[in-house]
């Protein structure tokens, strides 16, 4: 397996405060990698910079061998790099099906073009997309709510829809920022199982998660960030046993 995502020397500051202070790490293709660290370590900011939401101030990001540093989010999605947000975003009036369809389009203009021309190629593309949306909804156990408005979903179902939205773009890798946060415990393990299944199909996963039992169950290797840098990397048991890692957590919490 080769490195699919290569981050080197990545820097980003807000109002003069350095949040990413030279982040270096790589994610192996096909792996289920964990990203942990105390609150404020810069994990979400790292995702925001890697996914093109905020430009980097220094350093580089390579994906599948290509330089994607500060690339636009939709360009990165087309390249096969998807992400989820901690809170599902979108248009409140859409149904689950419409929400999935919207994010499966390769180009923003696709559906308008299809509606205007009604070409058979466009119709076929839309049918394929609809089948994909249905398949993804079913596998995430959202089949029975597919025609409900997104706003009517439970918190856990919204998290599943976020994962579904990412899958619609046929990603090679997904960045997940605390996809189980605030979800009731019975659904946490179910989401974990979905992620494992998605990973086994060959999609690389980089997961930010604060629940150490989940990280231990799902991820190998685990990368630890603290103070805007990577401080440790390895199998969970190994990094959890490290004194400097334990101190980084305690130092922030107390
Ligand atoms: N858009 C922003 N503007 C100002 N400060 C930000 C912004 N995004 C993140 N930060 C700051 O960066 C630091 C790291 O935050 P974050 O990346 O969310 O950490 P983590 O996800 O590891 O808890 C925090 O101090 C946060 O306030
Ligand atoms: Mg965060």
Low-confidence stretches: none
What ligand molecules are bound, each kind once?
adenosine-5'-diphosphate, magnesium ion
Question: Helix content range of the residues, please?
Answer: 40-55%
Q: How many DSSP E strands?
A: 10
Put simply, the count of helices is 10
Class derived from helix and strand content: alpha/beta
Strand content: 15-25%
The CATH topology of the largest domain, please?
A: Rossmann fold
SSE run? EEEHEEHEHHHHEHEHEEHH
CATH architecture identity of the largest domain? 3-Layer(aba) Sandwich
Number of domain units: 2
Placed side by side, the strands forming the largest sheet appear as: 6-7-8-3-9-10
| Distance from first to last alpha carbon | 40 Å
């Amino acid at each position: 397996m080769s490195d699919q995502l290569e981050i080197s020397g990545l820097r980003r500051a807000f109002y003069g405060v350095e949040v990413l202070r030279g982040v270096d790490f790589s994610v192996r293709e096909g792996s289920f990698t964990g990203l942990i660290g105390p609150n404020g370590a810069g994990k979400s900011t790292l995702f925001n910079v890697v996914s093109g939401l905020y430009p980097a101030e220094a350093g580089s990001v390579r994906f599948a061998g290509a330089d994607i540093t500060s690339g636009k989010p939709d360009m990165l999605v087309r390249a096969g790099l998807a992400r989820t947000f901690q809170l599902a975003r979108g248009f409140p009036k859409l149904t689950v099906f419409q929400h999935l369809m919207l994010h499966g389009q390769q180009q923003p203009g696709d559906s308008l073009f299809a509606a205007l021309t009604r070409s058979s190629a466009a119709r076929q593309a839309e049918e394929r997309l609809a089948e994909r949306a249905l398949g993804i909804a079913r596998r995430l156990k959202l089949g029975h709510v597919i025609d409900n408005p997104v706003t009517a979903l439970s918190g856990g179902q919204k998290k599943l829809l976020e994962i579904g939205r990412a899958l619609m773009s046929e990603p090679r890798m997904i960045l997940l920022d605390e996809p189980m946060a605030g979800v009731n415990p019975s659904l946490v393990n179910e989401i974990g199982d979905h992620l494992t299944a998605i990973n086994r199909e060959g999609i690389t996963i980089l997961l930010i998660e604060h629940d150490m039992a989940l990280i231990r169950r799902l991820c190998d290797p685990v990368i630890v960030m603290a103070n805007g840098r990577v401080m440790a990397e390895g199998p969970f048991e190994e990094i959890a046993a490290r004194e400097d890692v334990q101190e980084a957590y305690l130092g922030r919490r107390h």
